[in-house]
Amino acid sequence: MAIRVIISGGGTGGHIFPAISIANALKAMDPANEILFVGANGRMEMDKVPAAGYQIIGLDIQGINRKQLWKNIFLPFKLMKSLNMAKSVIKDFKPDVAVGVGGFASGPLLMMANKLGVPTVVQEQNSYAGVTNKKVGAKAAKICVAYEGMEQFFPAEKVLLTGNPIRRESIAIAGKREEALTFFGLDPHKKTILVLGGSLGAKTLNESVVAYLNELNEEVQVIWQCGSFYVEKLREELTGQLPDNIKMLAFLQRMDYAYAAADLIISRAGAGTISELCVVGKPVILVPSPNVAEDHQTKNAMALVNKGAALLVKDSDAKKDLVPAALTLLKDADHVAQLSENIKKLGKLNADVQIAEEVYKLVNKK
Predict the structure, then answer these.
(1) Quick one: average pLDDT of 1-10?
(2) How far apart are the C-alpha atoms of 317 and 72, rounded to whole Å?
(3) Are 292 and 273 in contact (CB under 8 A)?
(4) DSSP secondary structure of 205-241
(5) What one-character-per-residue DSSP string does 188-199 give?
(6) 143 forms bridges with which residues in the sheet?
(7) 60-71 as b/e, with b when 16 or more CB fall inside 10 Å?
(8) Gyration radius of the chain's alpha carbons
(9) 238 exposed, middle or buried (CB, 10 Å; 0-12, 13-18, 19+)?
């Protein structure tokens, strides 16, 4: 049975990629399914979603600016405007179900869907629920979560542990190590550290690598995703200083190769990335970003650390401690093996399909 679904949210890759994965799962179940995305004007979903082959409508909505509070003066007006537009979108598209994945646009769309009697699904990616998801989750039909214990934020009878939808092409690494090392021009006899700063980059991770270039050059090789925001400055700063075995890239077009080549991964602790790392099953050192709401990256990371599935280095300590911790870990084969074994236990590959099945269940209940 062909169905009509609105998927709302975005703002970061951590919201957009799961949303697209859910859409792809719905399309795989029935190519006649109609999917409409609703995002926020000016955010990256307005480019990424059409590139994935889906239609998107943008709302004029923003988040709370915690650093420059005066910029929030127009927020109530933008919220009202977005609610009215969401109402029009829902009435025009007539969805069977609305799915919210988090991000600015998710709140107004799900609030209006709940008000208009459209069944809603909340997909909460983090181990600590945000304010918007808690609000819309109270009236949602189902809340799909990636971590245990989320009943502290949502009605227990609505919570379903699915994991986060992941980019399947990124975690298809079996048998690719040799071609991955060739792709990056790396030595098959050296250990490889993968540093993931996200598409924009992470200043702390970049500074941590720069501080220990000599040590990294002597002992290992590095695939370093420095981010588009920092790449030009770093290229200028490191002219003539970057060793051949440290591959600095703004963005990783082939995440499968990056994961396949890695013996150890250093990363921020965004929910989507963690979900991929659990399936990949390599030892991980997490450096949670301190610049996120409710410090949810630290909470995400601790969910793994408490199960012996990852190590954590605080952002404030990273420049001094991160690279030494990584080099020490690579020399401890038993610890590496234990971390790999424990993180693999947390991997959930089929979250996208499970969430799509829940969407169908809601349609069948109508």
Answers:
(1) 92
(2) 33
(3) no
(4) HHHHHHHTHHHHHHH-EEEEE--TTTHHHHHHHTTTT
(5) TTS-EEEEE-TT
(6) 122, 159
(7) bbbbeeeeeeee
(8) 21
(9) middle
Q: How many Cα atoms occupy the beta-carbon half-sphere of 138 within 13 Å? A: 8
Q: How many CB atoms lie within 10 A of CB 47?
A: 12
Determine if residue 196 is left, alpha or beta; phi over 0 gives left, psi from -120 to 50 gives alpha, anything else beta: beta
Q: pLDDT-derived band of residue 60, with 50, 70 and 90 as boundaries?
A: confident
Rounded Cα–Cα distance for residues 203 and 223 (Å): 16
84 to 21, 52, 89, 96: CA distances (angstroms): 28, 27, 9, 19
Is the predicted pLDDT of residue 304 greater than 70, yes or no?
yes
Q: Which residues contact 255 (CB under 8 A, 6 or more apart)?
A: 167, 169, 170, 171, 276
Q: pTM here? A: 0.85
The kind and range of the H/E element at 37 are strand 34-40
- For residue 40, CA distances in Å to 37, 79, 86, 290 come to 10, 11, 11, 24
Q: Cβ-count burial of 240 within 10 angstroms (0-12 exposed, 13-18 middle, 19+ buried)?
A: exposed
| Structure tokens, 212 | 């220990």
* pLDDT at res. 15: 83
Burial 152-188 (b: 16+ CB within 10 A, else e): ebbeeebbeebbbbbbbebbebeebbeebbebbebee
* Residue 363: alpha-carbon gap to chain centroid: 28
| Token output for 197 | 């700063």
Q: Give the bridge partners for 69, in sequence order.
A: none
Asked if residues 173 and 260 have their Cβ atoms less than 8 Å apart, the reply is yes
Burial letters for 13-46: b for 16+ Cβ neighbours within 10 Å, e otherwise?
Answer: bbbbbbbbbbbbbbbebeeebbbbbbbbeebbbb
* β-pair partners for 284: 265
Give the residue ranges of DSSP H helices in 148-187: 177-184
Burial of 333 (0-12, 13-18, 19+ CB in 10 A): exposed
- In this prediction, residue 70 has a pLDDT band, given cuts at 50, 70 and 90, of low
